[in-house]
Design brief:
Layout: E1 10-23, E2 30-55, E3 58-82, E4 85-98, E5 112-121, E6 126-135, E7 152-161, E8 169-176, E9 196-203
Antiparallel strand pairs: 1-2, 2-3, 3-4, 4-5, 5-6, 6-7, 7-8, 8-9
Length: 205
């Protein structure tokens, strides 16, 4: 639902980013990298997703301002590659609080782990991969919220084809939620759909 009294957000943001990359860790052909980012944001009039309520036959989300909010968090990613094989493991977390009351803020995503493994074939024109995402339970909620949000794990497999003879063409095929998990994203009332297949074709002129 629209809130005509919402004020625009004003923020002061600080972010630090560090990258480290090296080669020949275990063999002469491999590579390894670490990427890290840390952020700290002070936000006035933070727009908070407050609640989802049923009005008639449909569900509506309301938004309100938090006078003074603080967001902080980090993301850490490890990358490893050997010839045409690549692996990445990342972890990210965000914390949000009302600076005046010390309460948690709604709408902050849960902590998330992602493992991505992929292999290139046929002169690197075809890439196939497996992505596993583990989302931790979200129990850092406002005292007025009804319940916690359970953890869940998703597995996706994907393939991309970029033909060498047609460099402007790209085809993406993915099978998402391979194990057909029944899950709910933090701060949403409705559960997400199950397994699905997606095909995307892109051609640049």
């Amino acid at each position: 639902m629209a809130n005509p009294d919402l004020k625009p957000e004003e923020s002061q943001n600080v972010e630090f980013i560090a990258d480290f990359n090296t080669r020949s860790v275990f063999t002469e052909a491999d590579r390894f990298g670490v990427n890290a980012s840390v952020f700290y944001n002070n936000i006035d009039n933070f727009i908070e997703q407050d609640a989802e309520v049923w009005i008639g036959p449909s569900m509506h989300t309301t938004y309100n301002n938090v006078d003074e909010a603080r967001l902080k968090g980090f993301e850490l990613t490890f990358n490893y590659g050997l010839e045409d094989f690549a692996a990445a493991l990342s972890y990210g977390q965000t914390r949000g609080e009302d600076k005046q009351t010390g309460e948690n803020i709604s709408g902050i995503p849960a902590d998330k782990w992602v493992l991505d493994l992929n292999q290139r074939f046929i002169n690197r024109s075809v890439t196939t991969g497996l992505r596993v995402s583990h989302i931790e339970s979200q129990n850092r909620i406002k005292s007025s919220d009804n319940d916690d949000y359970d953890r869940y794990t998703l597995a996706d497999i994907y393939a991309t084809w970029e033909p060498v003879t047609m460099p402007n063409l790209k085809l993406d095929l993915s099978l998402n939620n391979l194990t057909d998990q029944y899950y709910r994203v933090a701060f949403q009332e409705l559960y997400m759909p199950g397994r699905d297949v997606r095909l995307a074709v892109r051609y640049q002129f």
